[in-house]
Amino acid sequence: MKTTFWMKTDDNVELYVEKWHTPDRQPKAIVQIAHGMVEHIQRYHDFARYLLEQDIFVYGNDHRGHGKTGQRQGLMGYFAEADGFTKTTDDLFTITKKIQEEYPNVPIFLLGHSMGSFLARNYIQMHSDILQGVILSGTGFYPSLTTSLGKALSARLNPVEKSPLMNKLAFGAFNRKIHNPKSPFDWISRDPDVVKAYMQDRFAGYIPTARFFFDLMTGLQFIHNPKRNANIRKNLPMLFISGEADPVGNYGKGIWKTVSLYTQLGLDNVTTTLFEGARHEVLNEINKEEVYNIIRQWLLQNMTTYPPKTLSI
């Protein structure tokens, strides 16, 4: 069953959270989901149901500026006035603490998709000892020059106004390798029903604010910083899943660069799966059952590899 609740952050933002669970049952593990940019947690219902059938419970929130959280904030596509990427990452940790309060001896995995994968990569720079493992879906590698230029440009714009310019720079070329695309969002999935639903979703595909892009570029700088990544525990299980036709991962090239980023630091439990022909949202692809099964197998293999630290609440 699914239940929903709200959590208040230290700076008084109310986060919308969903929990998928079976009452009176103890889960094998818990997956906490960090969704992507300009979408929301309800798009993960099919995946959550699948995990629940495996006795794996699921938590996930709408990030600041997204979904019902953004609606209650009153400004979509906006994290915060300052330190938005860090605050959004801290929100994930706040939810993790609640999970451990409710299930103190159950392994917790963090799954981040796209922007959520960037948040997850920031999270493990600070809290990798809390997690049993991390799954990075649709992530990417971004050189410092790209992020520095994006940050400088977005800093010159009105922070609370939507930025079509930054949005075009971020997404404008994502359909370029698709023959005869039917919509601006064909790059997210080969499934036309997924694309149609995305385009009809009032909480998806909108244009974020300039400050959002500034925060995103800041976050990308964080996650590529070697000193920050040195804090990640070396035996953290990591699973990379991506489509070979995903522009965010530079059609596979960015995934392997990102994998190398971590293996060169000494991380020794890194698994990578690229799906042939798949686009950005592998959890919403025409072969999603294959993707689900690979995640399930990886979770089962890594549930007992490390005793996670118990939080002091």
TrEMBL record:
Kindly give the InterPro entries that the UniProt entry links to this protein: AB_hydrolase_fold (IPR029058), Hydrolase_4 (IPR022742), MAG_DAG_Lipase (IPR051044)
- Pfam families to which the protein is assigned, alphabetical: Hydrolase_4
Please list the residue ranges annotated as the Serine aminopeptidase S33 domain: 26-286
Q: What PANTHER family does this protein's entry cite?
A: PHOSPHOLIPASE-RELATED (PTHR11614)
Protein name per its UniProtKB record? Lysophospholipase
The organism encoding this protein is Ornithinibacillus hominis
